[in-house]
């Protein structure tokens, strides 16, 4: 006989590393993404929404040695094909640019906003699903396309509420770095491994400083824990040249360009790279995106191996307090560059492309730190229920308020305990509660309770102030909309 | 020796059943969802964004007999847990309502918009990823919550552009159907299988008519292909009562309610159901949502088994032409109802809930059919490149246009072939092209080419008209923004 097993209840939990976003969090992000989309739209970029699911083959993360794709993505087998959730918005763009190359306008300017998924170990503030927000131009070989991305990035930051002076778009060029390596006798095209190692090393400049980078480029370095990190094995003269490149920023763009020309002397790739930087700088300056908003900065590296030309990064230059109350620079909120080889994977033909990705969560955090998101998500006016039989009257009140564009709702829980209704209003961050009992209804009036003022008074007011500034007052029923509009205006 | 294998290129393809959405498609959907969110916000609903990935356990689709979850979802094993892409927005809401029951306001009004995934066989117009847009109230037992959903649905349809008279929110109640079954001696609580079979059968009313439903409820029916469909096995008198219920709609709400009372006579469940319908009707009427917008209609069934009380459906009542040019009713674009048992799966305690889901693709199709989406996604003004060295000037022009809020871009492809630039403008649906060569620059003028007018003239104009209405004209460089604004206004 089968055992009489009590069915186990499912656990109400998100999978490990995933989370839910509530109310204001969603509203604030949508608000910001909407503003970004406005700027991208003005610049002629078209939205593209690819599906969350791609073939593993198209994403290009398949490891041939195992029967399961790379652990970095969420993947599964479906009718013999391996499918996966996209891990960024660039790989799907490359697939689209190849798949629809005969139908899309050329150049193709597109923007994309949406979640991506990473099958990585979650940590504090690190989730396995998060938003990306990208803009790219595919098919434009000219550096005018790179300059456009930089000016658009600048406009975007100002549009969402980062004032000029609080950010800087810093620009470098991979070709200059390759030129530096060429100038010292390496060939980055043939020795990609060394070029990548140099890239990874100079990306640590902020952390280990010039001396640390010099040690890591040459014979190696003992880190703080005492562990020894192997060096890249370059000679001292070569390491000096690389460091000279990173520190080539001069007093102005012309001085920087001049220093860079010296560092890459003798390398055709390097010369091309410096020319491109000069052109980007000139285009931006001519449009008014001068040194208060953009700058050539040879210390910008951008980790990704796939960049082939100009790279850029938007840095917020104001300070915020860290968890321990110490001021620190906010840092990078967006980055990108030119990648001319991604579409080639599919078609065999190189297609020039350049683009930028905004760190949605970081930029949101910055806007919150600057108080730019205050009031995006105001709670509704709550019409309380004193008398269950008068529900139609209460519904009529919220109807009038909504018609006037005021967010409003009737309390729909059990109305017996009035205190619960006010607690609910509190949880909803309601600015105003409306109260109409039998007595008020008979006299044609309602009570309006200013919950924002009420909270302030409860916090700090003396008895005198309490009396002179009553948070609750009686108004004619006919004045409901006008009075509440006035109260909201005072608070907004 | 290893063979020298040429690496195979990946296929640039979406997985089977998935698709990409471009430009206007994305813009139109976002525009509509933004308007819907405005109405939901006004009603006090808060956005909720859950992750795309849930545990299979929380979704509740796991079949215990197989080592792989239900084929209806995309699922995979991760560190011993089965994860899956959500197949709707209601299951994640039930999980959230259980997981955060101590923190959320009660009642909890939330809306959610986003993609869901179904591992089903794709077909024409049927994709494995599509949008849903839901609003639900969790924790409100009163039918005032159901009435609110109906009035909000009505407001939403008008907000997105379906005029009053072109839609109807039809309301029924599962309790009335259960009452009908009770009235004829069945017990739906004990014989769920029969109740479900009746539900599925009467859902076919539109297809097979009253006689067909009668046959299917009793002894069975031969369909058009000659195949015999087994009947539910009810007696004739029972079938008559069910049909009387479905056809109980009277000349007005009062008449419908009176008919329903007769049909469910003797059933307490049925009586409660009719009372609820009467209350919903009264609340809606008091708020002005009368018979021109809402109606009690006993023929509304809504397939899903989990509804426990009021059910509703928004139908568009205007005709559109089908693929063969025949007029047909547009039909249902949204539906929902009360489901009091979904959260119970997790907590063991019944939690009242009611909500609505809008068919995003169907509503979009309706708005496109009504011409409501025209002009949402206008192409950019294209500044052509006649002289590569004047790129900064061209960039200055688009900068001025954008500052005036006009979507504009410089052509960034290879500028050698001017015809290609105009073809590009055509593909972008550009309203205006700007042309400035060396000669124009020297004289301080630019050429503006009205591409919309140009297309019209090319289609239909006589030589006389061509001459009197030139699509291309010369204007002072300083008038660029003002002139283009004028041209766009004429076309908008």
UniProtKB/TrEMBL annotation, chains A, B:
Family per similarity comment = Belongs to the class-II aminoacyl-tRNA synthetase family.
NCBIfam families in the record? hisS
Q: Indicate what this protein is called per its UniProt record.
A: Histidine--tRNA ligase
Query: Which reactions appear under catalytic activity for this entry?
Result: tRNA(His) + L-histidine + ATP = L-histidyl-tRNA(His) + AMP + diphosphate + H(+)
Q: Specify the Aminoacyl-transfer RNA synthetases class-II family profile domain's residue ranges.
A: 107-380
Self-association state and partner proteins as the record states: Homodimer.
- Enzyme nomenclature, EC number: 6.1.1.21
Subcellular location, in the record's words? Cytoplasm
Q: What is its main location?
A: cytoplasm
What are the entry keywords? Aminoacyl-tRNA synthetase, ATP-binding, Cytoplasm, Ligase, Nucleotide-binding, Protein biosynthesis
Q: Quote the gene name from the UniProt entry.
A: hisS
